[in-house]
């Protein structure tokens, strides 16, 4: 042992520098951590310890510790993280993460310890994508399965998968309305169980499911949108509230178009905050809140939707006056000119 100890003293571990990583909700990502030990180690993996930690402000959360074939995983990461089974032979301590949640975003530190030597590096992870509930302008539960798929598509989103809804639920998504998902099942996420929202799970939190349904049955829908390739903005020239038609014209002045709900949800996820019900392309009026304020959505975060009736149905009349959210793609103009 003494001999080994002497040997360890002259090992040097170096980590390769890595760029930051990005993943999509419910998707997977590899947080890289590659190391080399010089001189090549004659010792076994027992002496190698890999630790991944998530840095949450001043707090540190253990994600995973692996040593000598024993792997311990921190709360919140169970069944979702792993490292290569033979890290020493390949110099790879990278962290594989699956079923990504928005709350996984942040700074991670990889620590490689070998005998007396240790070294560490950090990598930052961002997670894009948001799942949202969508109700047609007529009433609650009016979309059959083909119409649900089309509804999401028409607002620049796609129908969400069960995996995406599950990840959104883990992040705290709560909505007591049954909606279609991509596998033709109907589900809804409940984090705070309450009467009328029990479903098949009764008083337990979780995603309720009605199972696979006949495509002719009608429900609401859950849509998914990933990151935006453009900007959503409130036109700076807009001083007064306007009708839906005027909102369209206002956006045209900025060489943009009225934003769709999909674009607004993606912009909200990226940080857009404005406490003004504003027109969108589908004739709905909504506003995004990322900074909690009691007078805006009761201190809750999210996108608020204006409904005509107390039972949360009906879009406003297009002659009513609201603000406007415009969308402009990254590549500049929205129009293709064919003269
Ligand atoms: C309601 O939605 C349908 C289909 O998207 C559309 O054709 C119709 O104009 C909308 N009506 C209103 C009042 O927004
Ligand atoms: C919601 O309320 C409106 C107005 O009171 C009513 O016409 C409509 O039928 C209600 N819809 C549902 C789904 O209860």
Tell me the β content. Answer: 25-35%
- Overall mean pLDDT stands at 89
**Span of the ends, CA to CA:** 83 Å
Instruction: Tell me which CATH architecture of the largest domain applies here.
Output: Sandwich
CATH evolutionary superfamily of the largest domain = Immunoglobulins
Low-pLDDT stretches: 1-10, 333-339
Total of helices: 6
Q: How would a crystallographer describe the biggest sheet?
A: 6 strands, mixed
Structural class: alpha+beta
* H and E string: HEEEEEEEEHEEEEHEHEEEEEHEHEEEEE
Question: What Rg do the Cα atoms give?
Answer: 25 Å
Largest sheet: spatial strand order: 2-11-10-5-6-7
Shape: globular
**CATH class assignment of the largest domain:** Mainly Beta
The CATH topology of the largest domain comes to Immunoglobulin-like
Tell me the count of domains: 3
Protein topology:
Layout: H1 2-9, E1 12-15, E2 21-24, E3 29-31, E4 35-38, E5 48-56, E6 59-67, E7 70-73, E8 81-82, H2 87-90, E9 95-97, E10 106-114, E11 117-128, E12 130-134, H3 145-154, E13 158-159, H4 162-170, E14 179-180, E15 185-190, E16 206-212, E17 220-225, E18 230-233, H5 244-253, E19 257-258, H6 261-269, E20 278-279, E21 285-289, E22 302-305, E23 323-324, E24 326-329
Parallel strand pairs: 2-11, 14-17, 20-23
Antiparallel strand pairs: 1-4, 3-9, 5-6, 5-10, 6-7, 8-9, 10-11, 12-17, 13-17, 14-15, 15-16, 18-24, 19-24, 20-21, 21-22
Pfam families: V-set, Xlink
GO molecular function, one term: hyaluronic acid binding
Keywords: Calcium, Disulfide bond, EGF-like domain, Extracellular matrix, Glycoprotein, Immunoglobulin domain, Proteoglycan, Repeat, Secreted, Signal
């Amino acid at each position: 042992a003494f001999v080994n100890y002497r040997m360890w003293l002259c090992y040097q571990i170096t980590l390769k520098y890595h760029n930051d990583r990005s993943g999509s909700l419910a998707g997977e990502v590899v947080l890289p951590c590659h190391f080399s030990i010089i001189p090549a180690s004659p010792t076994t993996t027992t002496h190698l310890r890999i630790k991944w930690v998530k840095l949450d402000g001043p707090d540190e959360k253990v994600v995973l510790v692996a040593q000598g074939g024993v792997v311990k995983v921190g709360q919140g990461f169970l069944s979702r993280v792993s490292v290569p089974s033979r890290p020493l032979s390949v110099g790879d301590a990278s962290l594989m993460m699956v079923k990504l949640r928005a709350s996984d975003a942040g700074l991670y530190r990889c620590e490689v310890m070998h005998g007396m030597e240790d070294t560490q590096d950090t990598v930052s992870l961002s997670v894009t994508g948001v799942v949202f509930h969508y109700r047609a302008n007529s009433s609650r539960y009016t979309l059959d399965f083909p119409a649900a798929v089309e509804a999401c598509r028409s607002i620049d989103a796609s129908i969400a998968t069960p995996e995406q809804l599950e990840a959104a639920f883990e992040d705290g998504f709560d909505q007591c309305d049954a909606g279609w998902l991509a596998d033709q099942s109907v589900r809804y996420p409940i984090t705070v169980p309450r009467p009328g929202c029990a479903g098949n799970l009764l008083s337990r939190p979780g995603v309720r499911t009605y199972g696979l349904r006949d495509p002719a049955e009608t429900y609401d829908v859950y849509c998914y949108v990933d990151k935006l390739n453009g900007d959503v903005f409130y036109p700076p020239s807009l001083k007064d509230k306007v009708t839906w038609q005027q909102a369209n014209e206002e956006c045209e002045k900025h060489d943009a178009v009225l934003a769709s709900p999909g674009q607004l949800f993606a912009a909200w996820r990226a940080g857009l905050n404005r406490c003004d019900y504003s027109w969108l392309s589908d004739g709905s009026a909504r506003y995004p809140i990322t900074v909690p304020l009691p007078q805006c959505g009761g201190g809750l975060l999210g996108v608020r939707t204006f409904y005509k009736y107390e039972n949360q149905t009906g879009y406003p009349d297009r002659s009513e006056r609201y603000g406007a959210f415009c969308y402009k793609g990254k590549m500049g103009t929205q129009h293709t000119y064919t003269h």
